[in-house]
Amino acid sequence: MSPFFTIKKSKNFMRHFILVLCTLLILTACGGAEVPIPQLRGELPIKVSNNNPASTAYNYYGLHESIDRQELREYTGVDPVRTEWCAAFVNSVLHESGIEGSESVSDVPLMARSFLFWGEQVVKEDIQPGDIVVFPRGNQGWQGHVGFYLQTHMKDNIEYYLILGGNQSNKVSIEMYRASKALDIRRRKK
């Protein structure tokens, strides 16, 4: 077997590779000003250093909680089908990056809002790729969502954050969230 196939991470690597290649060709032809949200794992759509947690998180881009259940379970320590796993994913990425997670500041590190006490607060004017953003989710005050900030986009005169995170449409993905909904922005303490 060729070395090319020995590095594959998914069962459908060639299909993904061809789709990414076609997508890049189409996007190059379109030449839009916004950074495209990739459909499949490839190169991170923004430039960050290799030691940025967002770069680490992107290694898991596209993993689905049902299809890749075992891999996500081993990585996060929770069953992604039975557990809200966004905070477990962020904590696992931080640990892989050599950074303490929210367990260092909270007795409930699997709750997204545990990150409200992690690191140091960042004002939105200073937000940078890899910062952690906490959002509300659901109807209860304890519910939330957490992920890594990548970039700000304006759409219909509304400011959105591109967030790379787990448990977004049941997978590790990049999605747009209204910036005004962010509960807090956090960054690793120096």
Would you kindly provide a brief summary of this structure?
The protein has 190 residues and is an alpha+beta fold. It has helices at residues 3-6, 13-30, 53-58, 69-76, 86-96, and strands spanning 120-121, 132-136, 144-155, 158-168, 171-178, 184-187.
Can you describe this structure?
The protein is an alpha+beta fold. It has a single domain, classed as endopeptidase domain like (from Nostoc punctiforme) (endopeptidase fold (from Nostoc punctiforme), Alpha-Beta Complex). The chain contains five helices and six strands. The chain has helices at residues 3-6, 13-30, 53-58, 69-76, 86-96; strands spanning 120-121, 132-136, 144-155, 158-168, 171-178, 184-187. It has a six-stranded antiparallel beta sheet. It is globular. The N and C termini lie far apart (46 Å). Residues 1-10 and 16-36 have low confidence and may be disordered.
CATH architecture: Alpha-Beta Complex
The sequence of SSEs as H and E is HHHHHEEEEEE
What class do helices, strands and sheet pairing give? Answer: alpha+beta
CATH class bucket: Alpha Beta
Keywords:
22% strand; 190 residues; 25% helix; globular; six-stranded antiparallel β-sheet; endopeptidase fold (from Nostoc punctiforme); disordered N terminus; single chain; alpha+beta
Topology:
Elements: H1 3-6, H2 13-30, H3 53-58, H4 69-76, H5 86-96, E1 120-121, E2 132-136, E3 144-155, E4 158-168, E5 171-178, E6 184-187
Antiparallel strand pairs: 1-6, 2-3, 2-6, 3-4, 4-5
